[in-house]
Design a protein that fits this description.
CATH topology of one domain: Arc Repressor Mutant, subunit A
Shape: elongated
CATH superfamily of one domain: Winged helix-like DNA-binding domain superfamily/Winged helix DNA-binding domain
Number of helices: 7
Largest sheet: 2 strands, antiparallel
CATH architecture of one domain: Orthogonal Bundle
Structural class: mainly alpha
Helix content: 40-55%
Strand order of the largest sheet: 1-2
Length: 144
């Protein structure tokens, strides 16, 4: 299993905003700090804002900030927003499933249980949990 770049950027962006509470941060600052393309980051920010994780402010003094408290943003919820559009395996693909073993294979059940456990673990963690007492990360993400 490997996370998509978009999910990775989403988490970096949320942690960046959490490290700079009460401040509107600019997309350029996030991109530079997180080593990301501004164009790619714009797509991630758009989805994060649509889902309510971020609040965006337009205009000259615009930028982005957390859309709700960092303690209320669960990592599992963010991962689902970005990863759920991709089926984990072909047998999860619904109408696009062409696997000839689908009627007899038990792997899908095992994978489903594993994914449930994976997301349950992520649901137990908030953005605050990732940031709390993490001075090194705070130092890397804090805007001077």
């Amino acid at each position: 299993m490997r996370l998509t770049t978009r999910t990775n950027l989403a988490m970096r962006t949320l942690m960046f905003c959490a490290a700079n509470p009460g401040r509107i941060v600019r997309k350029q600052e996030v991109a530079e700090t997180c080593n990301a393309s501004e164009n790619h980051l714009a797509q991630v920010i758009h989805l994060l804002a649509q889902k309510g994780f971020l609040k965006t402010v337009r205009g000259r003094a615009g930028g982005l900030m957390l859309g709700r408290r960092a303690d209320d943003i669960r990592v599992g919820e963010v991962f689902r927003a970005f990863e759920a559009v991709l089926p984990f395996a072909e047998c999860f693909a619904g109408a696009e499933n062409n696997c000839p073993l689908v009627g007899a294979c038990r792997l899908k059940c095992v994978l489903a249980e594993a994914l449930d456990a994976f997301y349950a673990k992520l649901d137990a963690v908030s953005i605050t949990d990732l940031m709390r007492d993490n001075n090194e990360l705070q130092g890397l993400l804090k805007v001077a």
